[in-house]
Each structure stands twice: as C-alpha cells, then as structure tokens.
Amino acid sequence: MTRFIFIAVLLFSTSGWAQNYVQLNDVTVCKERINSHANKTTTIAANFSEEIFSSMLKSTSKAKGILRYKKENKIRWEHLSPKKQIILINGKLMKYSENGKEIKNAGSNRVVKKVQGLMIQMFNGDFLDEKEFSIMYFENSLNYKLVLLPKNSRMSNYIESIELIFDKNTLAMKNLTLKETEEDKIVYTFTSIVFNKEITNTTFTQF
After folding, report:
1. Which of 97, 127, 163, 196 is the S-S candidate for 121 at Cβ 3.0 to 4.6 Å?
2. What is the reported pLDDT for 15?
3. Mean pLDDT of the chain
4. Which domains are present in the chain?
5. pTM of the predicted model, to two decimals?
C-alpha cells in the first residue's frame, strides 16, 4: 500500500451505485446546484463506511465511522471500527489519536496536510473552481457523478482521480472514491446524512 493510500485511510468509505452514466455537455445546472447547496451548508453529520482496495492486500479492508463537518474548515473524522482513530481539523490545526492515545505532530507530514486540504475542498465545494482539478460531469436518473483529475503533476503521482457521487434530489455526497489506480483505491459511502444541525465547536477540538 502506497504512502498516499495509507495517509488517506487516516483522514478520510462502499455500496454499489447505479450505472449507465451519461456525460453532461452543459454542466451549468449541475455545477450551480452543487455549489449553491455547498454555500448553504453550515454543518454535515453523517455515518460512513470505508472499503480499501489494494493490489498488495489479499482481501478488502473495511471500516466504519462518523463524520462531522462545520464551516469554516472544521472536520471530525472518526473511525469506530475495527479500531478507533480520530482526526480533528480546526482551521489550520490538526490533532490525531489512535486507540485513545494522541499522536503528536500528525500535521507535520506534507502528505497529511495535502489530504487535509483535499478533504476541506470536497465538503465546502471549493473544488468546483477547477484550480487544482479538471472536472468531468456525468448523470443518470438518480445521481450526478463528478470525476476530478489532478492538474498538478506531483499530485497525480499519488492520485489518478477522485470520484464524487451526489444525490440529485438532496445533493448529498453519497460516495467518495480516492483512486490511485483501478486496483488501489479507497471508497467511502455516506449514510444518515443531516445538514445544518448545530454542532458544538468542542467536537473539533476534544477527542
């Protein structure tokens, strides 16, 4: 398992989704809807499941946890099983604990910081400006699918693409896939998603 996939496991879960996506020629409506929803979203609370596919592993690695997000730039990413891991992001500050013990200086790793930035973009909609990614837009009767391709050659050494699945009705992100290759990827599925419910700031500062 490469360094990027390993770090992403710490920070960032799959059920199948409908196929037969058609690429959008006019992306205006899709982009505006997702952007408008992101701008109106102040908090997100959700459960997630995670599946890690690796050419170096004989079987798929699975995990479950909870996500909490709050503007501006606050995230609690908590694995509940098979082991307990918590990532707290509060602006530029990040804390990490594993099995109840805080791991110091987790934010000093350059790759960790990059993935941290990616997480924020995925939830606040900043990725839509296409500064770091080229985006292809697809749809079917139920969902929008966005495929993000890194523009930076250094980033593309770690990640081939990011795929996002949005529910057309609620505009909730249902799936997020970090793909290094077809064989090496992490897939997240989000459920029980609640928007704009009050979340205290201590959620992002205390384990």
Report:
1. 127
2. 39
3. 87
4. 3-204 (2.50.20.10)
5. 0.86
